[in-house]
Amino acid sequence: MLLIRCPWCGMDRPEIEFRHAGAAHITRPGPPDRVSDEEWAAFLYLRDNPKGRVAERWRHVHGCGRFFNAVRDTVTDVFVVTYKAGEPRPPETGPGESQPTEARP
């Protein structure tokens, strides 16, 4: 079972309590009246899909209900670190260095 640490609750909880909410730290394009249709479409639909560590937004749906960010390795499915929404992405750390949550059999 995959356990995820909610930075708001401070507890490791089963993955079924959480929902993925897309990439973290995405900035909307400028004022709507100055953004072209192509720019808006790119913002809404085009995302990178890198292999390795990515910053993602998650929600603790069946817990506190709050959004938070996580750095997750897409290859190993290991959550390297979780942090509260609005905080900057922490420096890259390895598993075991900062709130790791690993996939368990």
Question: What would a concise description of this structure say?
Answer:
By secondary structure, the protein is mostly beta strands. The chain is 9% helix and 31% strand.
Query: Which residue ranges are poorly predicted, with pLDDT under 50 across at least 5 consecutive positions?
Result: 95-105
Number of strands: 6
Element pattern in H and E: EEEHEEE
Q: How large is the count of helical segments?
A: 1
Radius of gyration based on Cα positions: 15 Å
Please state how the strands of the largest beta sheet are arranged side by side. Answer: 3-4-5-6
Tell me the major beta sheet. 4 strands, antiparallel
The count of domains is 1
Ends apart, CA distance between termini: 6 Å
Give a description of the structure.
The longest helix is centred in the middle third of the chain and has 9 residues, at 37-45. The protein is mostly beta strands and 105 residues long. The protein has one domain (3-91): Folate-binding superfamily (Folate-binding fold). The chain has one helix at 37-45; strands spanning 3-6, 11-14, 19-23, 53-59, 67-73, 79-84. The protein has a 4-stranded antiparallel β-sheet, with no helix packed on it. A two-stranded antiparallel sheet has the order 1-2. β5 and β6 (79-84) form a beta hairpin.
